[in-house]
Amino acid sequence: MNWSERYAKKSADKKVWQQLEESYPEDAMGWIKDAKWTGPVEVPINQIDFSNEKSWRSWHEPELVNSKIKKIKKGKRKPVILIGAPKNDHYIIIDGHHRSLAYKRLGMPITAFIGIVDKETGDWDTFHSKQLAKDPESKI
What's residue 110's pLDDT? Predict the structure, then answer.
């Protein structure tokens, strides 16, 4: 089953919640219900904000990025979580920084869920810092 078939049966907001619930505390996820979600869709790399990539933990974990590259090449394309905020020309990565760097290195569009929000700032800005220490995605 490919990634698009796997995600076809539920609404995007439920899929996003389900994907993130093991990695983040529930009390940090309330903003997800307020965004308007689509996906998963393929998003060109040039539409993603990579301006601060050198400050990401994933930038300093090339072995984990390499493992994501191998998975993507095998067709395992877990969607990245992106936000589209007003007055922002690029989507912001909320979750999936390692995968995003892997897609960028491969020169491929990013498979992602996109949440459209109606404010420039919100709880999504600090969401990634609340990722649980035993995040299942941290496995190589």
Answer: 96
Q: Pairing between strand 80-84 and 36-43?
A: unpaired
Cα separation, 16 vs 38, whole angstroms: 10
Q: How confident is the model at residue 35 (pLDDT cuts 50, 70, 90)?
A: very high
**112: enclosing H helix or E strand:** strand 110-116
**Distance between CA 99 and CA 135 in Å, rounded?**
14
CATH value at residue 86: 3.90.1530.10
Strands 110-116 and 36-43: antiparallel
Confirm whether 134 is domain-assigned. no
Q: Look up the domain containing 71 and give its range.
A: 12-129
